[in-house]
Amino acid sequence: xxxxxxxxxxxxxxxxxxxxxxxxxxxGYRKWKIEKPYKHALLxxxxxxxxAEHPLNKNYGVKRIFEGLKCxxxxxxxxxxxRRVMRENGIKRPKNSPxxxxxxxxxxxxxxxxxxxxxxxxxxxxxxxGDITQVExxxxxxxxxxxxDCFDNQLVGLAMDDNMKSSLxxxxxxxxxxxxxxxxxxxxxxxxxxxxxxxxxxxxAELGVxxxxxxxxxxxxxxxxxxxxxxRFKEELIYQLPTKQMSMFEVKQWVFRYFMGYWNNARICSxxxxxxxxxxxxxxxxxxxxxxx
Length: 293
What we know:
The protein has helices at about 1-10, 15-20, 25-35, 40-50, 60-70, 80-90, 165-180, 195, 200-205, 225-235, 250-265, 275-290; strands at about 125-135, 140-150, 155-160, 185-190, 210-215. It is an alpha/beta fold.
């Protein structure tokens, strides 16, 4: 009983202090620890199995591990138990904080903020978000433009180049339209010059998409969901790669596989109920088909 009490209070007191008070030896506790069957051995094995399913799953935090387990198994213990098992076994993900990239064009015509911080959507292709980020490579900076659907957090458009001219964001928007037909959607972004230019506005009009912009320059919370996507992307992939020593072509391949393979089709997303974005979209259209029958 005394060794068990020590085991339950490791986060509060040191082993030596507890052993002294309870009049047991640290060597005795360690022997008990080695010989004692681990209560959550099966749960730990399942957590490790989930992480091993994809190299990038090592970046899962407690909540996504919990939701991923619920997708695979019945009778999963509580979130707090999963958190404790991960803490006891040193399972955690790294954290980094990327910075914004685009700069506002103060002279350009602006659009109203039609999103107003509400990043929810009842169906696909209603609300889209756009932004640009950059990655250093051996050949110079790689600029990445993304178009995200608020419904399922799927990156529906992706474009990459060695510059961030308006053609970059137009390319991301066009890909989203080719894949899902975004006519009638709201497209929200910051007030970067790429999004306020005549070329981009003309493309929105051609596709029948309504433009929305941040309330004021520099207010990143107005496009917080898109900023969060870049943050996750860099934590889970870019900060794990020696991109400054890699060719731009190599980095492009990694980025494409991350978003179009892992992010959209495999990565557990807590914000949409603990499933990959593509699964949420398929479930939505499955329900639509059943109701229409």
